[in-house]
Amino acid sequence: MFGVVHDNSFLSLNNLKNDKLHKFSSIYSEQKTWRDINYLVGNLDIVGSFNKDIANNESILVIFQGNLFCKLNQITAAQQVLNSYSEKKDLSFVKKLNGSFNFLLLDREAKSIFLATDKCGSRPLFVYPNKNYFLFGSEIKLILSLIKENPQINWKAWGQYLTFRFTLGDNTFYQGIHPIPNGTIFKINFGKRIFISQKKYWDFSEITINSNSSFKKKIAEGAEVFRDAFVTLSKVLEKDKIIIALSGGLDSRSIVGGLKKYTNLQNFDTITTLHPCGPERDIVTELTRALALKNTYVDRPNSIYRDFFILKAYLTDCLVQEHLWVTPMLGIIKKYEAYIDGVAGDIIMRSTRVRPIHIEKKRDTEFLAKLFKKQFGFEYNWLRNYIDKNIYDQIEYSNEWAINEFKKIEPTDNRMVIFLMKNRVRNGISIAPNNIIGNSVKRVFQPFYNDNLVNFGLSLPHHYKFRFIYRQIVNALLPEISHINSTSDEDSKKLISYDQRIIQFDQNPRELISDYSPISQTDQKYLLKLVKSLPFPPFINKNKFLKDNERVIMLHRINTILDLVLWFNLFQRKESIESLKKMN
Predict the structure, then answer these.
(1) How far is CA 390 from CA 265, 358, 395, in A?
(2) The overall pTM is greater than 0.70
(3) Residue 189: inside a domain, yes or no?
(4) I need a labelling partner for 531 at 20 to 30 A (CA). Which of 60, 141, 208, 444 fits?
C-alpha cells in the first residue's frame, strides 16, 4: 500500500511518479499478489495495494493490511474497520483490535486520512512528510518510486545497521522517511493545506508485571492463554490452505502442536529449512512423527547467495541482514494461501536476551546501552580504510544512539524487553517475513502478536523466566512431546557464563557475518564475483578494497560491503534486480 496526499493541484500523481514504478509493480505481479488500483479522491492518490482487503462506500475508504485474531461474521477486516468507524466517526475502537496489521482510512467528508499501526508495530508502514505533499508506503521502495529525487541519506541509520543489523527508533536510511511507531494513529487533514498529527493509543508500558500468582499457577495460566490463542487462530484460518514454519525451537512447536491438539484445523503442512542456530532437522523429524504432521525439509542450497541474495536485499529495503535462510522456502510457500511462523515469541516469553543484570541496572541508561551493544553489536572499524572519512565519522558507533532510545522507556523490569520489541523486533525481525514471505502468499500470521500472548508474556516476573517457565508452559500444553529436545532449551551454567561475558564490554569484538557461516565454495566465488562486477558508490574505494581482499577472502567484510553496494544500486541508482544479475 502506498500513495500521496498533496495540497496543490499541479502536483498530481502523473507528474510525481516516474517509470521506475512499473519495475516495482512487476516484481510483485510475478508473485501474483500485486493489485493495481488507483483511487483518485481530491488530493489523495493511492497507487496500489498488495492485498484485496479493501472496503469502500460513498464517504469512507479502508485499505487493511494484515490480520485480526478474531473470526469475523462474513465480512473482511477492512469492512469491520469501516463499520466501527462509521458508528462514531472516530478511531477509539482501534485499541480493541487484536491483530497484526496496519490500515489506511479515508474520510472523504472530513477530508481526513488516518494511518494506523497495531500495538506491536508488527507491520511496517513508513511516512515521508514534505512541504507540498505527504507520502506513505508499506515499503520504503514504494515511497521512493513516487519521487524523482531521493531524500538525503541518513548516515546515522547506516551506522546503527552496521552495528546491530537493524536500525534504531524511527531511523531509516533516508532523512525524513520514518516508520510509524507501534500503537499509533497518524492523521492527515487535507484541503487547501496539509495538517499532520499523530496520537499514541497504546504502548507496552500499559502492561505491568504480575507477581501475585505462584510459578505453578502461572504455568497453568500460560497453557490456557496459549490454547485460547490457537483456537481463535484456527477459526480465522479454517478455509485457508496453510503452511507453518517448523524449527527446532519452542515457538513453532507450540503453534503446530497447539493447532493439531486443540483445534479442528488438522489439514495444514509444515516446512523446515536449515537455520543457523541449531540442528533443526533431527528435532523436526521427531516432532512431526510424534504429532503425525506432514513436513517438507528444504535443505540450504549451495547457491543460496547466487539465487537469493539480491532478491532478499530488494524485498527488505536492505534494512535486514538476517533471514536469507528463509528464501529457499519461497517456491513451496507460494503454493499456499496462508503462512504462519513464531516471530517474536522468544523475546516475549523467554529470558535468554534479558538477564538478571538488566533488572539490577534497569535505571542505569548508559550501562544498558553498553550492554545492548555488547549483546548485539558488531565491529566494523576496518571500514574506515575504504570509506570517505566524512561519512565514516557519521557512521562510527555512538553509545548515544542506544541511550536516546532507552530514555524513551520507563525504567521497569521490562525495560530491555520493550527496547527489543520497539527496535530489534519492529525494525528487523518483523520486516523479513512480511516483506519476503508476505509477497508470496495471501496472508502471513504471527500468533505471538496476539494481544493476550503479548500481555501474558510481558506480565511474567523475570525470575520466573529465569526458571525457564516458557519450557514448562509448552510441556503443560503438549506433554506428549515434552521429552523432545529444543534449540530453545536453556542451560543454567551456560547462562551464568553468558552473564559474565556480556559485562566484559571491551572483549571479544565481533565482525558482521552472514546467516550462513561457513558457506559453500559456489557462493564464495559468487560473492567475490558480485562485489567485483557491481558499481560501487563514490564514497567507497573499490580498487583498494578488492586489492586488500584479493589474497585472503574475508567473507564477513565482503558481505558488509555488499550491503552498502546493493543498497546503492537498488535504491540510489534504482537499478532493477534483473540488471544487477546481468552485471554479474
Answers:
(1) 57, 35, 9
(2) yes
(3) yes
(4) 141
